[in-house]
Amino acid sequence: MSIFAFLAAAAASPAPATPALSPGEIVAAAPVSDWTPISAEDLLVMDLAPDAAGKARRVVIQLLPDPFSQGWVGNVRTLAATHWWDGLSVYRVQDNWVAQWGDGEGEDRLKAKPLPAGLARVPQERYVLRPEGPERSATHEELDTWLATIEGTHGAWHALTDKGAAIKDTDPYADETFFYRGWPLAASRKGPSAWPVHCYASIGVARDEPPDTGTGAELYAVIGHAPRQLDRNLAVIGRVIEGISYLSSLPRGAAPMGVYSDPAARTPILSVHSAAEVPDLPAYEYLSTESPSFRRYADASANHREPFYVQPAGGIDICNLKVPVRRRE
């Protein structure tokens, strides 16, 4: 074949398809304008005792924004401001479930550490957010109209999950799932109501039997598959944005529910401080869930088109669509 024939054949051949970007590549390429700073006022820093090799273990926690779970969030802020957790421990680690910290002697009234004054007693009705007025059954359109009144809700997610789009919006625990200012939430037409969901690294408030709802003194982080059955039954107050491995890798407790039967096995907490008290803490930001980059990231996460994948899934669970968080440069 002459060079001219070769060039003619090459020109007639279709151009190779542009390789599909992975979700991680989309996040890495997201412009600065698509990232939203996380206020230092919404961050707590929990320093655990160093590991056996002497390595520091720092867990950075972001608190849930208004209007969700604010009674418990306020209590957590008070507990951190009074350094109540300093010197306590992670005393329960249950495989594929949670790591829990607070006062390991709290069940013994003679040994329990006194709580600071001013903690709110939050009713269980506050597990969800509802509009004013009597409870009712809303239509799908009425639910969407109400959710749209909460600033920062689910526009980007609905752009993907509307009829005919790439991602199916189905959930066994709720009528809808969506994002609110970077947080995964769910909603029901009954009420109507909306609530934060339990995903990996979510932080919730441990409690006794209802009607107790917990003060926020005893907290847990999810370290396994998303336990969505806990939604609306315990309060979610935040999430770990850095250092979840220091909790998920702790030895599992052998006693029922993962409690350490030997107090010596507990992991000591050196301190829990607000970010303002930690001068060396970096700034953080999250990929805005209303941004074009998040839309592409969500689509790529639900429909992997990289060469490794044989069949795009065509859908994604709200907890599998982890909102990217990074240190600000």
TrEMBL record:
EC numbers on record:
5.2.1.8
UniProt-recorded Gene Ontology molecular function terms? peptidyl-prolyl cis-trans isomerase activity
Ranges for domain PPIase cyclophilin-type: 73-271
The enzyme class is isomerase
On the tree of life, the source organism's domain of life is Bacteria
Q: What Pfam family is a match for this entry?
A: Pro_isomerase
Keyword terms, alphabetized: Isomerase, Rotamase, Signal
Q: What span is annotated as the signal peptide, if there is one?
A: 1-17
Keyword Isomerase attributed: yes
* PANTHER family according to UniProt: PEPTIDYL-PROLYL CIS-TRANS ISOMERASE CYP38, CHLOROPLASTIC
- Protein name (record): peptidylprolyl isomerase
Task: Please name the taxonomic classification of the source.
Answer: Bacteria, Pseudomonadati, Pseudomonadota, Alphaproteobacteria, Sphingomonadales
